Amino acid sequence: MTFLWFKSFWRFTPFWQVFSIVIVFIMTIAYGYITFQKTWLTQRWYPVSSFIYLAPLYEEIIFRWLILWSLLQHTSLKKAILYSSILFGIWHIRNIFYLEPISLFYQICYTTFLFWPLMAYITYKTKTIWISVLFHFVNNLLAPFSLLSIVYAIIK
Length: 156
Known about the structure:
Largest sheet: none
Oligomer: single chain
Strand content: under 5%
């Protein structure tokens, strides 16, 4: 199956899609590094630019494009979604330095059992990763305002 390969999207050819991702990646890393250098003693979370802008791009490309596509070559859709969902949930363990344990647990459960399977299915049906990149961006943008975040802040 080649449906996850880059293809023309609106007026962006595959070359310009990859080029745009690389430029955004470089700009985000530079901005995140500068922000981190200024505030490294006072903040214990991701630089916002990395969390909101960069993560949807590289996570979707790595997990949805490379891993899901590879799994679909060797297994059924359900198994590919299940295995890639578990890997994506495990990937979020890296946030242990930035989140409280209970928040990390909620994030892993949410990404593994709800967000990832839904986005994988949408990607499979639409045959493009860009819709899931957009949803991932919106998800990360709204995450601080989620019900679980608000309840946890009140309890804490």
